[in-house]
Design goal:
The complex is a heterodimer.
Chain A lengths: L3 E4 L3 H12 L4 E5 L5 H6 L1 H18 L15 H25 L3 E4 L2 E6 L5 E5 L2 E5 L2 E3 L3 E3 L7 H7 L2 E2 L1 H4 L8 E5 L3 H12 L3 E5 L11 H14 L2 E3 L2 E7 L2 E6 L2 E6 L2 E4 L3 E3 L13 E2 L2 E2 L12 E3 L10 H15 L12 E4 L5 E5 L2 H7 L3 E7 L4 H6 L6 E7 L5 E7 L3 H13 L4 H5 L11 H5 L1
Parallel strand pairs in A: 1-2, 1-7, 2-3, 7-20, 9-16, 10-11, 10-16, 11-12
Antiparallel strand pairs in A: 4-5, 5-6, 8-17, 13-14, 14-15, 18-19, 21-22, 22-25, 23-24, 24-25
Chain B lengths: L8 H4 L19 H4 L5 H27 L1 E2 L2 E2 L13 H8 L7 E3 L5 H14 L2 H10 L4 H9 L7 H17 L32 H15 L6 E6 L6 H10 L3 H4 L11 E7 L2 E2 L2 E2 H5 L20 E4 L3 H16 L5 E6 L17 H9 L2 H11 L5 H23 L44 H7 L21 H15 L4 E4 L15 H4 L5 E3 L4 H13 L4 E7 L7 H7 L3 H4 L8 E7 L12 H5 L5 E3 L4 H13 L4 E6 L27 E4 L4 E6 L2 H16 L3 E5 L2 E3 L4 H10 L2 E8 L4 H12 L9 E5 L17 H12 L13 H10 L2
Helix pairs in contact in B: 3-4, 3-5, 3-15, 3-16, 4-5, 4-13, 5-8, 6-8, 7-8, 8-16, 9-10, 9-20, 10-20, 18-24, 20-21, 25-28
The chains are: A alpha/beta, B alpha/beta.
Chain lengths: ~450, ~800
């Protein structure tokens, strides 16, 4: 009998297995495909490889302002893909090595739960093989949502409609691409293909892009993209897609947008079916496994972490949830907090944020102070960027003078957001932040400036 | 089940017919001329005056309710007013022959009965007695208002008495501190004990069981007078009324009770048959009896001496009362009277009369009892209009004066809960200690030491472990049931008023053998079996205690509390405070929580009782505590719901050093007891869960090195938190546990309070372990329902502090608790 079985080897699952193994728990990790999950294989990491290539290409094309002349800068999409594959392979094997080092047994196969007996022993199958445990971490992740739009299923077959999975293996840059859904994935791919010379159109049902981010920052981001040539169709519903075009309903008027490829990126949903969850009576609600701040489900010894619990579908949320769950199993008090959850959109320019937005402050009735500055207040930012389009906005709780939110658009935002995350998580007051020495000249200094 | 009454198949299976006697219907046929030899002119005038007084009183209330004024006086009375215009002759006729020793109990529509009985008592009492009653009542507060208003006037004591009665009743209806029970009863619960006017009841038929208990008290304690239960025709649809009549008509009064106790109960069920049960018409619509009097024929061989009488003629009522009183005094009760009457007013002033025609009302008004009585007497030239007019004037003046006094906020203030915030609080319990409710010598059948069970018990070991710490066998150990027996037997020898009854108390010895041996020691009239009538068992105990006795009644299973819902929730707990402390309620209600008996015989309903203000609730689970708490309960003057557990009647005393003392001792209510000291975790238990918590404590200690302090609540209401708070300050962690279903339970109250008192000391929220919010399944599945030792470890691990390496079996995770709540399970 294993001390712990983890179903799903994505960021949540493999880290949980690793931490459990490191702490002496006899741990089994069941993965049906490849270690690393969506993040490593077909999400965060490969898309970052893509975007870095595009950013280099973009800089090369626009290098003359920096006194650099390049000729015939071109993107070789198949080379981009093969480099991406190399990166993924290296990382996946790295995870495998980490499992070995932590003495985690990894079984490849579909993990299926098959019941819990009177002594609390849970049976789990990896394909035909049966394993037993009293503790189970469910880290089955999420899957792509394909809305039932006419033409989509045919398009998926003939390749005119693709998802975030296939797009990372595209060997050529299409002439035109329509992206359905202006979430993080959609925006990152829009940015990539736009930089690579594709005519990109984004269709979004809501009246803004990038989901629940600070509304002012999302419109700044949108304007920046529009300047670069991406077309946005907000408040629009896709009525047909595939076969070279997308048909949208724009305030009652049907429009046809040419699209050699259509990317369906309307969202992801937790994987909760098909692996015997119901055999042990795990409680689900609105398509997600309900877990508490320790990751505990309603069944003793059974935890749900990562995308499967549907709280924050981000790899780094899964990492932390994995640690909280394992600590709980180990008898160490630990609690998952989501107040200081950073998010990054790795577009060009980047966008990063943590904590409350002005909208959530108003919703929750939090009295806040706002400070904002153009990114150009950072000397390094000015020295390195031609177009000064970035901005930082920081929100403070009026009563406590603590930072409760930070929102940035601009290069390095993805790296700088960690400083802000620490400040929010540790509930630092402005007085405390002012005592921190920021290295000069860095773009991160912008935080000191904005205080 | 008594052996002296063999059940002979030949007799039982014999062929034959049941025959009934004719039931008289309005057989009174005399007129005033015939009656003038029985009644003086003064008597007639008094009957007239009393009826007019009631009519004016009720008309005044209607006027105030509907127009906020009466005779030029302005007042707004938001409280209820169920008026009885039309029913005066029935009330006055009934009261005419009664003495203050005769008790009446009433309904929500009993103003008239109170006034009639009060006027009758005033007429009977001499001036000295009457003054003593008035001056002594509630420190003279009510009387002083009337006395002051007559300063400088020459007024007779009887007239003062009448003013006192009208004012006291009205001030009570207007919720004034000078009212008959300081405004805490109000219109539907007004009464005045010194005149033999016992509580009216807002629950339809509520007086049925209570008055029966009062009659039991009179009979068993050889007190003078009879008891009348005034209830409406609507109440005949209520089960407790049927139960009360069954109890009152028990054969054993004649077959088994001995000596002067042989004979029927001195009670009359008088149906004030005003034809309506709120909006339902009893005859022809909601009942099938045709005549209410028919019911008597279904209750006993004597047909309860049932009779329909004309309640529109006071002389017909007096005639019937005279005959029925003799029957009762001859120990041939119970009696059933179907007194025909009619109410002109609606059920209450908000009643739009949509269920009857104006013609019907007019027809009754045309034969109005007061007008007809006056007409008959004037036409017979016995009395003159002038004599009646003078009475009318006096009546209006008396009522007007009472109104002016009662509405005056200075003369008649309300209870001041701002200046005196504890005024109601201190009335909730009488907290008395009266070991014997009477000075008479207790009737017993044998000396205590001659009792076989007493002798058997004397040979038992009074501690569960011998000198070497070895457990004493069940047969040799002094059990919890013995402890209860001892406390109860002691009280039988001490308090002559103590009665114990229930469904299998005699001969059988109680379903759980607590009373085994009592049959030999206690005569029938102090220990008897009742019909399967839970409402009547509890309700009669209320009446018994209210009248001055002490009752120990038993419902066998806690589940049966539901069958006595009104009696346990509305009557038993409320009368002490509703009477402003004038009534005491020394009732101990034994209920036993079942085990192994499924959904309707295994429920812990302590929480239902703790929810009700006015009940004391105890639940001892060791022999030492059981004896001490039972003794306290039986010495007290408050209603106590005494919970017992069928899991542990045979358990020996494991905690109290030296075992259970042979002599009598008390354990004060409200004090929890530390059954196992510890320093890492506190477990507070209610009831027999204690023993599972102790098993858990052993596991905690042996397997996880956690030292548990286990505290037994013993009493739920009242409850002193000090010991628990002290423990939590030490441990920082607490689980509260009991066998009642978790939702809405007392455990959650306790958890909430500990959370408040100990917030700064707690390392984790207070954990609650109760039974699942399910039906109690069969015994074989009970371990999934009732808290088990392992559940304590599980809840500790999931809610207080994760134990390294531990995996729970029973789920106490947040998600599971929320899931269950969402589904309501």
């Amino acid at each position: 009998m294993y001390d712990l079985i983890v179903i799903g080897g994505g960021p949540g699952g493999y880290l949980a297995a690793q931490r459990a193994g490191e702490n002496g728990l006899n741990t089994l990790l069941i993965e049906k495909n490849k270690l690393g999950g969506v993040c490593l294989n077909e999400g965060c990491i490969p898309s970052k490889a893509f975007l870095n290539s595009a950013k280099i290409f973009d800089q090369a094309k626009n290098s003359s302002v920096f006194g650099v002349t390049t000729e015939k800068a071109a993107i070789d999409q198949s080379a981009v893909v093969s480099r991406k594959n190399k990166v993924v392979k290296a990382l996946v094997s790295g995870v495998g090595a980490a499992m070995k080092a932590a003495k985690v047994t990894v079984k490849y196969g579909t993990g299926v739960i098959a019941g819990r007996d009177a002594d609390g022993v849970i049976s789990v199958y990896a394909d035909e093989e049966k394993f037993e445990t009293k503790r189970l971490i469910i880290a089955t992740g999420s899957e792509i949502v394909i809305p039932p739009i006419p033409g989509v299923s045919e398009g998926l077959k003939d390749g005119t409609v693709i998802t975030s999975r296939e797009i990372l293996d595209l060997e050529t840059i299409p002439e035109t691409m329509t992206i359905v859904g202006a979430g993080v994935i959609g925006l990152e791919m829009a940015s990539y293909f736009q930089m690579c010379g594709c005519k990109v159109t984004v269709v979004e049902m809501l009246d803004h892009i990038a989901g629940n981010i600070d509304r002012e920052m999302s419109s700044l981001l949108q304007k920046t993209y529009e300047k670069r040539g991406i077309e946005f169709n907000l408040n629009c519903k896709v009525t047909k897609a595939g076969g070279g075009f997308v048909e949208i309903d724009d305030a009652g008027i049907t429009r046809k947008i040419p699209a050699e490829r259509v990317l369906m990126s309307v969202g992801r949903r937790p994987v909760i079916k098909g692996f015997g969850l119901e055999s042990i009576g795990v409680y689900t609600e609105h398509g997600r496994i309900v877990a508490d701040a320790q990751g505990r489900t309603n069944v003793p010894g059974v935890f749900a972490i990562g995308d499967a619990n549907g709280v924050w579908m981000l790899a780094h949320a899964a990492y932390r949830e994995a640690e909280v769950a394992v600590n709980t199993i180990l008898g160490k008090k630990d609690t998952m907090r989501y107040d200081a959850m950073p998010s990054v959109i790795y577009t060009n320019p980047e966008m990063a944020f943590v904590g409350e937005t002005e909208e959530t402050c108003r919703e929750k009735g939090i009295a806040y102070k706002k400070r904002e500055l153009p990114m150009g207040y950072s000397g390094r930012y000015l020295a390195e960027n031609d177009v000064v389009e970035g901005k930082i906005k920081v929100l403070f709780d009026e009563s406590t003078n603590r930072m409760i939110g930070c929102h940035m658009v601009g290069s390095y935002a993805s790296e700088i957001i960690l400083s802000a995350t620490i400040m929010v998580e540790t509930q630092m007051r402005v007085e405390d932040m002012k005592e921190i020495i920021f290295p000069h000249p860095t773009v991160g200094e912008i935080i000191r400036e904005v205080l | 089940m008594p052996k002296q009454l063999p059940i002979d198949p030949a007799e039982i299976r014999k062929s034959g017919w049941i025959t009934f006697e004719k039931i008289p219907v309005n057989q009174y046929k005399k007129d005033v001329a015939d009656e003038s030899k029985n009644f003086s002119k003064k008597d007639f005038l008094r009957i007239y005056r009393d009826m007019r007084m009631i009519r004016e009183f009720e008309s005044m209330l209607l006027s105030i309710k509907t127009t906020n004024s009466y005779n030029g006086l302005e007042y707004n009375n938001p409280g209820p007013a169920h008026l009885s215009m039309g029913q005066e002759a029935a009330a006055v006729g009934q009261a005419y022959l009664l003495t203050p020793d005769d008790y009446i109990f009433g309904s929500h529509r009993s103003h008239g009965e109170i006034l009639a009985k009060g006027l009758s008592a005033i007429n009977l009492l001499n001036d000295k007695e009457l003054l003593a009653v008035m001056e002594g009542f509630l420190d003279g507060n009510t009387f002083r208002v009337v006395e002051d208003s007559n300063k400088g006037r020459d007024i007779s004591v009887k007239d003062l008495g009448i003013e006192f009665l009208i004012y006291g009743a009205l001030a009570e209806i207007f919720a004034k501190d000078t009212g008959f029970h300081r405004g805490l009863g109000g219109s539907m619960h007004a009464f005045f004990l010194p005149f033999g006017i016992y509580p009216n009841n807002a629950i339809v038929g509520g007086s049925g069981t209570i008055s029966t208990g009062s009659a039991l008290y009179k009979k068993i304690n050889r007190k003078p007078g009879i008891v009348i239960c005034n209830i409406g025709d609507g109440s005949l649809g209520r089960g407790p009324v049927w139960e009360a009549m069954s109890l009152a008509a028990m054969d054993q009064f004649r077959t088994l009770w001995e000596g002067d106790m042989k004979g029927g109960l001195p009670i009359m069920y008088n149906i004030m048959n005003n034809q309506y049960a709120m909006g339902g018409q009893t005859r022809g619509e909601t009942m099938g009896y045709d005549f209410a009097a028919r019911i008597g024929a279904g209750v006993n061989i004597e047909q309860m001496h049932a009779e329909r009488i004309d309640g529109y003629n006071p002389l017909a009522v007096i005639d019937a009362m005279k005959r029925k009183l003799k029957i009762l005094k001859d120990k041939k009760g119970p009696v059933f009277l179907d007194t025909v009457t009619y109410r002109y007013s609606g059920h209450s002033p908000s009643d739009a009369d949509s269920y009857r025609t104006p013609e019907e009302k007019k027809a009754w008004e045309e034969v109005d009892s007061i007008a007809a009585f006056r007409k008959e007497l004037t036409e017979a030239k016995i009395l003159t209009d002038a004599q009646f007019d003078e009475i009318d004037e006096n009546v209006v003046a008396t009522i007007t004066k009472a109104v002016s006094l009662a509405i005056d906020p200075v003369v008649s203030p309300r209870m001041d809960l701002v200046q005196n915030p504890g005024a109601i609080e201190k009335l909730m319990f009488s907290n008395g200690r009266i070991p014997s409710m009477d000075t008479a010598k207790p009737d017993m059948l044998q000396k205590r030491e001659d009792n076989l069970r007493v002798q058997q018990i004397s040979r038992k070991e009074r501690f569960a472990f011998d000198a070497e710490g070895k457990a004493v066998s069940k047969n040799r150990v002094f059990q919890l049931r013995d402890a209860l027996f001892e406390a109860i037997l002691d009280k039988f020898y001490e308090d002559p008023t103590l009665v114990a009854y229930g469904e299998e108390n005699r001969d059988w010895g109680g379903a759980f053998a607590v009373y085994r041996g009592l049959t030999e020691a206690v005569p029938y009239h102090r220990l008897f079996n009742t019909p399967i009538s839970e409402a009547a068992i509890v309700g009669s105990a209320v009446g018994y205690a209210m009248s001055g006795g002490r009752a120990l009644v038993e419902l066998m299973y806690a589940d049966f509390l539901g069958c006595a819902g009104d009696e346990v929730f509305n009557q038993l707990p409320k009368w002490q405070a509703m009477s402003a402390g004038l009534v005491k309620m020394p009732v101990v209600l034994r209920v036993s929580i079942g085990s192994k008996y499924g959904a309707q015989h295994s429920q812990d309903w302590t929480s239902l009782c703790t929810h009700i203000p006015g009940l004391k609730v105890v639940f001892p689970v060791t022999p030492y505590d059981a004896k001490g708490l039972m003794t306290t309960a039986l010495n007290g003057t408050d209603p106590v719901v005494f919970f017992e557990s069928q899991r542990i009647y045979d358990i020996g005393e494991q905690f109290h050093e030296g075992g259970v003392p042979t002599e009598s001792y008390e354990i004060p209510f409200g004090e929890p007891d530390v059954k196992r000291p510890g320093k890492d975790l506190t477990i507070l238990t209610i009831g027999a869960t204690l023993y599972r918590a102790l098993e858990a404590a052993k596991i905690f200690n042996e397997q996880y090195g956690i030292d548990v302090e286990v505290i037994d609540a013993r009493t739920l209401v009242p409850f002193n938190y000090e010991k628990v708070v002290e423990s939590v300050k030490k441990t920082g962690k607490i689980i509260v546990a009991g066998d009642s279903c978790e939702r809405g339970g007392y455990l959650n109250d306790v958890a909430r309070n500990i959370g408040t008192f100990c917030f700064d000391y707690l390392d984790a929220p207070v954990a609650v372990v109760g039974s699942r919010n399910w039906i109690t399944p069969c015994h074989e599945l009970e371990n999934e329902f009732f808290p088990q030792p392992g559940w304590f470890i599980d809840v500790f691990h999931e809610q207080i502090q994760p134990i390294a390496g531990y995996v729970a079996l029973e789920s106490f995770t947040e998600v599971e608790l929320m899931r269950r709540s969402r589904l309501g399970v």
